[in-house]
Write a structure and sequence with these properties.
Oligomer: single chain
InterPro entries: 4pyrrol_Mease (IPR000878), 4pyrrol_Methylase_sf (IPR035996), 4pyrrole_Mease_sub1 (IPR014777), 4pyrrole_Mease_sub2 (IPR014776), CobI/CbiL (IPR012382), Uropor_MeTrfase_CS (IPR003043)
Radius of gyration: 19 Å
CATH architecture of the largest domain: 3-Layer(aba) Sandwich
CATH topology of the largest domain: Cobalt-precorrin-4 Transmethylase, domain 1
Number of helices: 6
Mean pLDDT: 94
Structural class: alpha/beta
Distance between the termini: 31 Å
Low-confidence stretches: none
Number of strands: 9
Family: Belongs to the precorrin methyltransferase family.
Organism: Methanoculleus sediminis
Pathway: Cofactor biosynthesis; adenosylcobalamin biosynthesis
GO molecular function, one term: precorrin-2 C20-methyltransferase activity
Helix content: 25-40%
Number of domains: 2
Order of helices and strands: EHEHEHEHEHEHEEE
């Protein structure tokens, strides 16, 4: 199994307890560059640094992805392997693209992710900026997804969003609590707990 582990915004002390535990338990640890290595070094000095180029050359990126996928795969086939990445592995990260490549070349490998403190939440702390109400996060592209917190009527909200072109919905209720539940697609309940988050996404163009 390959687990993408969030390393937080740039301070080794901001790794989660679970991240530190997984780094210690993994048979092998890989990171995308020296900045990520500096974060895992206190916990896993034998981590392997891989090359993930910051370039717009898609052919070169693809070749590097293929090489990295083939290098990671033998370890992930045999046991727990960690890919540590700055921030969170599901937010604007290299990990999802790496998983796509590994799935094509090594379909027997399974994946999981562990969250890390993202730059979005870390910014508010560093800048001392309290955030409330709705806000937009973008990497420069137009928004294709929306996240709603404290959703009390998820089915009705999803029906309304469908009229705006959204077709993929995921509701997580009481996340990381004993009563955690995940609903997808048309399975959304009429009412949900105060501690609920709804994710909505438009189809890719």
């Amino acid at each position: 199994m390959l687990v993408g582990v969030g390393l937080g915004p740039g301070d080794p002390e901001l790794l989660t307890l679970r991240a530190v535990r997984l780094l210690g338990e993994a048979a092998a640890v890989f990171v995308p560059g020296n900045l990520a290595y500096d974060l895992v070094k206190p916990y896993r000095p034998d981590a392997v640094v891989l090359n993930f180029p910051m370039t717009s050359d898609e052919d070169y990126i693809r070749r590097c992805m293929e090489e990295n996928a083939d290098r990671i795969a033998p370890h992930a086939e045999d046991g727990l392997t960690v890919f540590g990445i700055i921030g969170d592995p599901n937010f604007y990260s290299t990990f999802s693209r790496l998983c796509e490549m590994i799935s094509k070349r090594h379909p027997e490998i399974t994946f999981a992710t562990e969250p890390g403190i993202s730059s979005i939440t870390a910014f508010a702390s560093v800048a001392n900026v309290p955030v409330a109400g709705g806000f937009l996060v973008s990497d420069g592209n137009g928004p294709e997804s929306r996240i709603f917190m404290k959703v009390r009527k998820p089915a009705a909200l999803a029906a309304s969003l469908s009229e705006e072109g959204y077709s993929e919905f995921v509701l997580v209720e009481r996340m990381f609590m004993l009563e955690q539940r995940v609903y997808r697609g048309d399975d959304l309940p009429e009412k949900s707990d105060y501690f609920s988050i709804l994710f909505a996404r438009r189809p890719h163009a």
